[in-house]
Amino acid sequence: MPPTLQALTDGVLKGDKTALGRAITLLESKKKPDTQKADKLIETCLSQKADSLRIGITGPPGVGKSTFIEVFGKQLTALGKKVAVLAIDPSSAISKGSILGDKTRMQELAKDTNAFVRPTPSGDASGGVAKKTRETIILCEAAGYDVVLVETVGVGQNEIAAYSMVDFFLVLQLPGAGDELQGIKRGMMEMADGIAINKSDGDAIKKALVAQGELTRALHLFPHKENGWIPKVLLCSAQENEGLAAIWDMIMEFATITKTNGHFEFQRKSQNKYWLLQTIDAEIKNRFYQNKHVKSHIDSLLKAVMEGQISPFAAADKLLKLATK
Ligand code: GDP
To answer: For residue 202, which atom of ligand 1 is closest to its CA?
Structure first.
């Protein structure tokens, strides 16, 4: 017998990990009764004001994200924090699997009583995963987790989604200079509040220092952020547990500055607005493509457009009119 909504809510608010896990599963369910329950649960959890810090962690596969999160997370629980780890996984139709990997990740941290590691949810091309992750953050915070780490692989949409739900966006990079730096996209540089060059150990330290210099110079070319924060580039080795304390100090400094000048709160409010508009956009699009009139005409109109029998604009107009019929 599944627990009642009341029991589940009580469990989450008490910080019970099993209840939290079940609540997230409920959130991920596509069944209508579950969705309604999940909405109620979120509403209750939203009313629990939590003092939390949401940190996005991104970087290419192999940069050391899971190693980093495991060590960083343990460091935070040692400081008395309660840490939740969530992931936005671009598991795609192309790879048929999750890029971030499966449930075996971060086993050490998962065993920690003050940590909650949510196994990667399966992919959903409609962008539903990001929305669920945002709601999952709310549940975790209501359950008393005061640091939420949101992990994602640095690819397009996922990165933007993660950026739009966190307070601090940390980009992990590998030591390397020159050409290798070209690989870090402009958009990523703009989003970064901090860049950590991981694997700065052994022979790689020299290269890492060069990269640090180059990335710092590159960051300075961007206009200053409105929140008064100047992004930093730090070196670390997750494997050797070097430099991670300095990364936490940097994040704390960021929080102090932006909380003092009001930007911390402002950013969260702007993110709420972003997600409202984003959800409407997605829903309108969804309804359009699910509309039965659109469904029955879209293929022939697409063909006609491709063959030049009708202009794309006229065809779009027709379809949009059909959708509101
Ligand atoms: P992810 O794909 O970004 O999650 O990367 P992983 O955490 O799975 O790490 C990929 C590989 O890099 C693993 O073999 C790790 O042991 C190794 N690794 C992670 N962090 C470091 C580090 O700081 N230094 C070195 N030398 N290797 C590391």
So the answer is: 26
